[in-house]
From TrEMBL:
Coiled-coil residues: none
Record organism: Rhodococcoides yunnanense
Annotated transmembrane regions: none
PROSITE patterns: HTH_TETR_2
Keyword match Transcription regulation: yes
Listed name of the protein: TetR/AcrR family transcriptional regulator
Pfam families: TetR_N
Assigned keywords, A-Z: DNA-binding, Transcription, Transcription regulation
Lineage, broadest ranks: Bacteria, Bacillati, Actinomycetota, Actinomycetes, Mycobacteriales
Regions recorded as binding DNA: 43-62
Length: 218
């Protein structure tokens, strides 16, 4: 005979779930405010002044700005790290995969510039502050996996194998992205065009085939 769960335990579980749900709601709602202010200039009070939520509400659900920022970035990354999965799933040849990847790569550079800026800000802060270094490293590893899925599928469609390991491929593509983001924020479109050429060269590098470069579209 199955025993009925303790009613008090069920109530406590519902309360925890409700609390976490509210934390997620607040983190998502304040994400763009965080992206505008950046890590160094952010406090719960400043976030409250730039959002619809009171300082008291934010302080009830988050112990400090670090708690809120980390939770917010985790929520964003949960979506971000699957950004290119559809590109990989729908690819039928290497040229098409690259074209779709490049389009999405530069589209998110413009559309989500503030959020990407927040991520790089948080990653840099982790060099100095070990209180959230573990969370940053976990997010970074998921980003490595995201890029590797693209690179591995690209080489598979070409019938080759990657010439770089997972981490090196990520550093290469992420480095181009971060530099392009800086130029985007600085209003330098010519540098974005240069970044497109750099991305194409990067894919030539990750493919060990002697005839690596695909026939680029457009």
């Amino acid at each position: 005979m199955t025993q009925t769960a303790d009613p008090r335990a069920r109530i406590e579980e519902r309360a925890r779930n409700k609390f976490e749900s509210k934390r997620t709601e607040l983190a998502q709602a304040t994400l763009h405010t965080l992206a505008e202010l950046g890590y160094a200039r952010t406090s719960l009070r400043e976030i409250a002044q730039n959002s619809e939520f009171s300082h008291g509400v934010l302080h009830y659900y988050f112990t400090d700005k670090l708690d809120l920022i980390t939770h917010a970035v985790r929520q964003y990354e949960a979506i971000c790290v699957t950004r290119y999965d559809e590109v990989v799933a729908n690819a039928v040849d290497a040229t098409g995969l690259y074209a779709d990847f490049e389009a999405k790569y530069f589209a998110t550079l413009a559309a989500d510039a503030g959020i990407h800026r927040l991520w790089y800000d948080l990653r840099n802060q982790a060099l100095f502050d070990d209180s959230f270094r573990t969370e940053v490293l976990e997010i970074e590893e998921r980003r490595v996996d995201m890029i590797w899925r693209v690179v591995a599928r690209y080489c598979e469609l070409r019938g080759t194998t990657p010439s770089l390991d997972r981490a090196s491929a990520y550093v290469l593509l992420d480095g181009i992205f971060q530099r392009a983001l800086l130029h985007h924020l600085a209003g330098k479109p010519a540098e974005i065009d240069a970044a497109r050429a750099q991305l194409r060269s990067a894919f030539t590098m990750v493919d060990c085939s002697s005839a690596a470069a695909p026939q680029w579209r457009g």
